[in-house]
Amino acid sequence: MSQLFHVQSLMEITQRPDIVFVRGHGSWLVDEAGKRYLDFVQGWAVNCLGHSPAPVAQAVADQASTLVNPSPAFYNVPSIELALRLTGASCFDQVFFANSGAEANEGAIKLARKYGQKYRNGAYRIITFNHGFHGRTLATMSASGKPGWDTLFAPQVDGFPKAELNDLDSVRALIDDQTVAVMLEPVQGEAGVIPASVEFMQGLRALTAERGLLLIVDEVQTGMGRTGTMFAYQHYGIEPDIMTLGKGIGGGVPLAALLAREEVCVFNHGDQGGTYNGNPLMTAAGVAVFDALASHGFLASVRERADQLRDGLLALSEKWDMEGERGLGLLRALKLKRDEGPAIVERARALAPEGLLLNAPRPNLLRFMPALNVSADEVVLMLDMLDDVVAGLRR
Ligand SMILES: *Cc1c(COP(=O)(O)O)cnc(C)c1O
């Protein structure tokens, strides 16, 4: 009997299709009826090495039988190894590990406020952006600029005035003596894959430095190779003060990180913590993921697949009278012009014998977040399947 008969025991928080997945490998998922799906969602850009990647499975299995959790009050080997790798690959000096992107961003907000108390006369406001997304805790929902979220669980956490992405004057206009930081996604993901421009990022770095403000990049979606460099800020020729990571950092397991330059690491004992933070089971997975991403040629192949995906999406856009595409690396969006997104997602999933999993963060937009080790053939297959779906829809 299908497990679908028992789903009423799960709290209903979103509409899910009538499919129960039982297995995954690389770019493919398999449901309980045995149907295969080519997955270009990958848990929302989480499975950077695809489903159940061997290095992560091995690292978790080995670590599970070695040491799972000595408690965050003690040091453990994998967390030290992963912190060393992350600081070695970035402009940051220290790491705090968390369990979700929202929790890492909460940590970034707390760290900035602490910095404000220590060095900036109690300044606490953090300028964030309309349509930005930083997570689903109360503070990170308040920091997000998703329409409707300002009243959803009112009252909001105070202190997150909203500017417009790629509009430096809109940031400048919000700075006052209570401002301590500016926080943004280098590519707004949930908003529909909208990259910050190089001029804007460089202008923002200059402006924040001049006014003594911290620059926080939320790289929960863009970090860990997603955009073709290890971290997206590296495309812009700038160095932020704080960065958060999530999603890809664990290759599918719950792991996130807060990184900062040494001068900004101002937590006192007891200010920050958490039962599972930096546990060896998850950080061992993180080490395996990092080593795969840092291996010779890996990021170059991400950039090749990204070019291939971009060219293929542009060709589809041309053929079907759409509005082109945008993105950075393997985080891309196809601009549909019409509100066909939800219908395309449904029809792609229903394709037989093999389905295709896509995401439409907005009705007129499709978002593509394949595994970073997706093959050239799989990109071709996805483009062919998508072409079929659009042809069927327009017929
Ligand atoms: C997904 C996401 C988050 C939230 O991460 P969770 O692990 O779901 O809490 C925060 N910021 C950005 C940019 C994200 O894409």
UniProtKB/TrEMBL annotation:
Gene Ontology biological process terms in this record: L-arginine biosynthetic process
UniProt EC number: 2.6.1.11
Cofactor comment: Binds 1 pyridoxal phosphate per subunit.
Residues reported in the UniProt entry to bind pyridoxal 5'-phosphate: G101, A102, F133, D218, E219, V220, Q221, T275
Pathway: Amino-acid biosynthesis; L-arginine biosynthesis; N(2)-acetyl-L-ornithine from L-glutamate: step 4/4; Amine and polyamine biosynthesis; ectoine biosynthesis; L-ectoine from L-aspartate 4-semialdehyde: step 1/3
Places the protein is found: Cytoplasm
Required cofactor names: pyridoxal 5'-phosphate
Keywords from the UniProt entry: Amino-acid biosynthesis, Aminotransferase, Arginine biosynthesis, Cytoplasm, Pyridoxal phosphate, Transferase
GO cellular component entries: cytoplasm
Residue positions binding N(2)-acetyl-L-ornithine: R136
Pfam family of the protein (one): Aminotran_3
Annotated positions of the N6-(pyridoxal phosphate)lysine modification: K247
The keyword Transmembrane helix appears for this protein: no
Stored SUPFAM superfamilies: PLP-dependent transferases
GO molecular function ontology, one term from the record: diaminobutyrate-2-oxoglutarate transaminase activity
InterPro entries: AcOrn/SuccOrn_fam, Aminotrans_3, Aminotrans_3_PPA_site, Class-III_PLP-dep_AT, PyrdxlP-dep_Trfase, PyrdxlP-dep_Trfase_major, PyrdxlP-dep_Trfase_small
Main location: cytoplasm
Catalytic activity: N(2)-acetyl-L-ornithine + 2-oxoglutarate = N-acetyl-L-glutamate 5-semialdehyde + L-glutamate
Family note: Belongs to the class-III pyridoxal-phosphate-dependent aminotransferase family. ArgD subfamily.
Record PANTHER family: ACETYLORNITHINE AMINOTRANSFERASE, MITOCHONDRIAL, AMINOTRANSFERASE CLASS III
Subunit structure: Homodimer.
Other remarks in the entry: May also have succinyldiaminopimelate aminotransferase activity, thus carrying out the corresponding step in lysine biosynthesis.
The name this protein goes by in its record: Acetylornithine aminotransferase
Species of the source: Orrella dioscoreae
